[in-house]
Amino acid sequence: MAVHWFPSPRGAREGLRFLALAALTAATACSNGSAPTPTPTPSASARAGTTITVTEKEYSLALSPSQATSGTVTFVVDNAGTVAHALAIAGPGVSNAHTSTIPPGGRARLTVALRPGSYELWCPIAKHKELGMDTHLQVRGNGSASPTPGSAAASATKH
After folding, report:
1. Residue 113 predicted with pLDDT over 70
2. Residues 120, 94: Cα–Cα separation, whole Å
């Protein structure tokens, strides 16, 4: 005796679509322990952004690379020192961008829209700047219109 789950071929197709969608939803939700969330599409400037690693220790700042092209720049700040540090940046269109305090062994991210020009980077904690935690970053144009400076985004973590 044959058992039919769906009364028609159209019903069978709709049933298979439902099962496929349910399986995909379950797999996605289980892959990261939470329900799936939509991912925004990054803008062209975000996709073309630059990442610069800043290594901080008593009492120096090292940038890698030491130059950038105008646009979105993310500074990944590693505190390789034995005391707390932070990173501040100022230059054309940027006046109050900084990370929170980064504990020894910690890491922070600071994303800023930079125009062509010279930027000063320093540790704003106590007298760290005067002790040598101060450097400059030269930002060159990228051949297109300079980005409008936006707000800076920062986060810090201990790793």
Report:
1. yes
2. 10
